[in-house]
Amino acid sequence: MKLHLINIYQFSWSYLFVLICILSVPIASGKSIKSSVPRVVPDNSNHKRSFNSPHAHKFLVDGSNLPLVHFDIGDSYSGILPAQSNATELFFWFIPAQTDLGKNDLTFWTNGGPGCSSLIGATLENGPFRLGRKVEQNPYAWNKVSNVLYVEHPAPVGFSHGNVIINNEVDVARALFGFMQNFLEIFPELKNANLWVTGESYAGYYVTYFADYIQRHSSELALFLQGTLLIDPVLGEEILQFEVPVYTFVKRNPNAFQFKPTFMAQLAEKNRLCGYEAYLEKYLQFPPPHAPFGLPEPASNGSGRVEKKCELYALVSQPLRRNVDNIPNWWYSGPLMTKYFNRADVRAALHIPKRAKKWTACSSPKNSKAPAWDVYPQVIQNSKRTVMAFGAWDFRIIPDGAKLVIQNMTWGGKNGLTQPKPTPLNVPGQGEMGSFRTDRKFTFIDVFEAGHMIPEDQPKVALQILQFLLGQKDSPSQ
């Protein structure tokens, strides 16, 4: 097994460390707030949709004539639309479904960051082509089973821009909601479609707050929000997701980290003294012993902030500030993306105004309260289906940390996931590629041989998971 510094875009959050994964091979007006549960409608995935409005035609992208893309990706639509006011405009790329399957589904995708472009997902993960050393067709593009909408937000990330101050994820959600209202005026054929909000990494915040906002204002949006999919998300306290599971993860993957025995002994002692060892042993159980449970002591010192001496993530990341065996996709795709989206012909093809600023992958972060304890449970309760998937080899956001958050969470009148043993996740042609647990409309999936960006590392698995979310498959496993 090789150690690769791959599959991560800029994650400018509380601290910046080298991020590693392990791989083997018209304008919306303000309206009064209304609360209601989401409207669920029967599946109608064979209903054909076409986009022929004069407004939509202005955004048409010729899929046979994209610069450097030597194959036809089909018609798509892109450009800039206002959010909740003219002061903020967001760039979007809308990729219609290729077949009748999923014609009545609209999958909204966002990357994380916070403040990173969703074009990262569109061109590295689940879009119709992949931008790398060479441009390749993606046989597992998500628009094979659904209409897919990529939106760059919050402004000023990517081509998006605005003067409205964004203070937190509620502001982000409000802007996205206004954008979606305007989007449907351009593409009225999508009105009353099933909406699925998906995203990755810090999108754990974006997706959750956006879904909650939609559920609270459902009568003001002509879409039926059905569910969400989070991939390797940040959702809870940093100490649970970034500190408690560090030692166990490193110990489980010795060939990848290859730390000296003296360093491992030092790490083990800190793991014990900070209370991480006992905490993980006591609370990472299925079903959970009880909930809610507090944060580990003495590491948090009752404040929720990690004591300096207990910052194991920083301790482990420091020796890994190097590329050990291979050049990772992001490190060469990142600069390529910047060059690609700043080409004059690409910008013209995507209807970017000449006055628009230079494209950048990420902008400044805006943080809110972790959504796991109150917002996310409510989103699950008011959704038809909720899915969370984690790459088993993601060290940037460690799977066991997310499981601790879930086991300390209450939804549907119970605490955590209760299924003692997970069910194997089987994928045709690949065999067993993970495992999953389902409880009270929520499914947690572990994906083998994947790091922080599952749709890039295991695209076939990711597409299968999406189809489960959409209700096209009865189970994540086939």
Tell me briefly what this model is:
This protein has a single domain, classed as Rossmann fold (3-Layer(aba) Sandwich), CATH 3.40.50.
End-to-end gap: 27 Å
User: What would you give as the CATH superfamily?
Assistant: Alpha/Beta hydrolase fold, catalytic domain
CA-based shape: globular
According to CATH, what is the topology?
Answer: Rossmann fold
Strand content: 15-25%
Number of helices: 16
Question: Could you say what the CATH architecture is?
Answer: 3-Layer(aba) Sandwich
| Radius of gyration, taken over Cα atoms and rounded to an integer in Å | 22 Å
Protein name: Carboxypeptidase
Pfam family, one: Peptidase_S10
Enzyme class: hydrolase
Signal peptide: 1-30
Structure report:
It comes from Cronartium quercuum f. sp. fusiforme G11. It is an enzyme of class 3 (hydrolase). InterPro entries: AB_hydrolase_fold (IPR029058), Peptidase_S10 (IPR001563), Ser_caboxypep_ser_AS (IPR018202). There is one protein chain. This protein is an alpha/beta fold and 478 residues long. It has a single domain (1-478), classed as 3-Layer(aba) Sandwich (Rossmann fold). It contains 16 helices and 18 strands. It has helices at 54-57, 119-124, 169-186, 203-216, 238-243, 246-252, 254-257, 261-273, 276-283, 312-317, 329-341, 344-349, 375-381, 399-407, 454-457, 459-470; strands spanning 2-4, 21-23, 60-61, 76-82, 88-95, 105-110, 129-131, 135-137, 147-151, 161-162, 193-200, 223-231, 385-391, 410-411, 414-415, 423-427, 431-439, 442-447. The strands form 4 sheets. Strands 3, 4, 5, 6, 9, 10, 11, 12, 13, 16, 17 and 18 form a 12-stranded mixed sheet that branches. The chain has a two-stranded antiparallel ribbon with strand order 1-2. Strands 7-8 form a two-stranded antiparallel ribbon. A hairpin with a 3-residue loop joins strand 16 (423-427) and strand 17. Helix 3 (169-186) crosses helix 4 (203-216).
